[in-house]
Design brief:
7-stranded mixed β-sheet, about 55% strand, single chain, about 0% helix, 4-stranded antiparallel β-sheet, mainly beta, 11 strands
Length: about 120
């Protein structure tokens, strides 16, 4: 079992930045791929980025260059830096975990946090 708790969401103006954190607890953090997803109101959950133990990352094409995922294996934490935010980035951002590969489908992730709201005003 892996428990995930996100933090760092909030309200920011367009062009601003936010840093999201996800603290993991429970089983060992090794061999666990961590992902960030987001879900806007009335829309399906979409992949943002993922990272594996070694630090290798994968991003949704539309997020590249603005968002950065990182992890601290000793602290069992994963982070998402959001820069140059746009109103269309408004969503609930979820942290997720799975064993093995860093896949981009929400259906492939077993463990989920409760989500943190990010609101970008124009």
């Amino acid at each position: 079992q892996v428990q995930l708790v996100e933090s760092g969401g909030g309200l920011v103006q367009a062009g601003g930045s936010l840093s999201l954190s996800c603290a993991a607890s429970g089983r060992t953090f090794s061999n666990v791929a961590m992902g960030w997803f987001r879900q806007a109101a009335g829309k399906e959950r979409e992949f943002v980025a993922a990272i594996v133990w070694s630090g290798k990352t994968n991003y949704a094409e539309s997020m590249k260059g603005r968002f950065t995922i990182s992890r601290d294996n000793e602290k069992k934490a994963v982070y998402l830096q959001l820069n140059s935010l746009k109103p269309e980035d408004t969503a609930v951002y979820y942290c997720a975990a799975r064993n093995g590969l860093m896949l981009s489908s929400a259906n492939d992730y077993v463990y989920w946090g409760q989500g943190t709201q990010v609101t970008v005003s124009s």
